[in-house]
Amino acid sequence: MTRALVLGGAGFVGVAACKELMRRGVETVAAGRKDRPYGTFTSYVAFDRTDEGQLERALAQVQPDVVLDLACYQPDEVMTIARLFKGERYVFVSTGVYPDLGGRPAREDDFVPLAGDPPDALDYFGGKRWCETMLTRAEGFPWTVIRPPAVFGPADHTLRIAAYIQRVADGGPLLVPAETYERQAGLAWVKDIGFACALACDLRKDATGKAYNAAFDGVSLRDLIEGIAGAMGLPARMHPVPFATLPEGASPYGPDPKRAAGYVLDRARRELGFEPSALEDALAETLAWYRVAHPSHPGYANRARELEIAGAGN
Predict the structure, then answer these.
(1) How far is residue 253's CA from residue 82's CA, in Å, rounded to a whole number?
(2) Residue 149, preceding bond cis, omega within 30 degrees?
(3) What are the tens digits of pLDDT across the range 77-134?
(4) Angle at the Cα of 260 (from 158 to 217), degrees rounded to 5?
(5) What three-state secondary structure class fits 12?
(6) Helices 190-200 and 12-23 meet at what angle, rounded to 10?
């Protein structure tokens, strides 16, 4: 039986990945910095992965065949894992590391490893790009990368999906970027990313040294908003405006016209057997959570200004 250590296994995507790993018969051990979180359903170890001694002891204790890493943002953390982990595969969960593609869907090879040395300070995006770069330099290390875009689902701590649900629910128009709201967007359901992670952990698959996109296929921002409205029995009132004029928080998923128009999934389908779910399934589960939790996205505080803009455009 394969044993997987899931760093960040009690988090948003981590829970989905652990569930899918367990469903596939993988002995699954979640890991995090805090003591065992309430509701954790797997074996669990607590340690600080930035402390090399604690990480080394945890690897010795669990002796995983696979490490699935959902909690790595700094290149030095990747290099520490590469030095200490002696198992069969390290799966790094990255993000949309691609350069600006001007509305072209991103293929895995559109990311080119960076040159030089990483700077001392890195934001989330820069950190993920440098993590991937350092993996390509780790000679002989058995790595695989999963690249999700913006991920939504129940209990999404970013609350970006709630921003759209709230606006549909209040009946007013939603400001959307005129340039991009009808093109494919970079979106994914948390269950699908958990599925992709589990596929990448399957040691029968020849995935070493490769990166894989995982996302919805062909879903635009318009599709998302219309799907929410349809599920709620409400009209989808969209008001296109230039992307540059969108108030902050009005459309958290963008899409930014400079960025890629979603992902090409050919490699993940062909080599991993990945297939994205239907948008309707993702929204049904997400809306069920929303109706109970009633979360509010911070950008909704500016809703009055959005309505003024939409009214002035009529």
Answers:
(1) 33
(2) no
(3) 999 999 999 999 999 999 999 999 999 999 999 999 999 999 999 999 999 999 999 9
(4) 75
(5) helix
(6) 50
- Helix, coil or strand: residue 239: strand
State the pTM of this model.
0.96
Inter-residue contact 289 to 259 (CB < 8 Å): no
162 half-sphere exposure, CB direction, 13 A CA radius = 20
H helix runs in the chain, sequence order? 12-23, 52-62, 75-84, 124-137, 160-170, 190-200, 221-232, 266-267, 279-293, 303-312
206 in Cβ contact with 213 (< 8 Å): no
Q: Determine if the peptide bond prior to 255 is cis (ω within 30°).
A: yes
Q: What is the mean pLDDT of residues 204-231?
A: 98
The C-alpha torsion from 38 through 42 and 43 to 46, rounded to 10°, is -50
- Residue 261: which residues within 8 A CB-CB, separation 6 or more? 101, 103, 104, 105, 180, 183, 184, 185, 186, 255
Q: Under DSSP, is residue 216 helix (H, G, I), strand (E, B) or coil?
A: coil
Which of the 8 DSSP states describes residue 68? E
Rounded CA gap, 4 and 214, in Å? Answer: 20
Residue recorded with tokens 């629910």: 169
86 DSSP assignment: -
Dist CA 213 CA 145 (whole Å): 9
Which residue type is seen at 30?
A: A
CA pair distance 161, 154, nearest whole angstrom: 9
Give the whole-angstrom CA distance, residue 285 versus residue 60: 38
Q: Which two tokens stand for residue 152?
A: 């939504």
Contacting residues for 183 by C-beta, under 8 A, at least 6 apart = 103, 220, 255, 261, 262
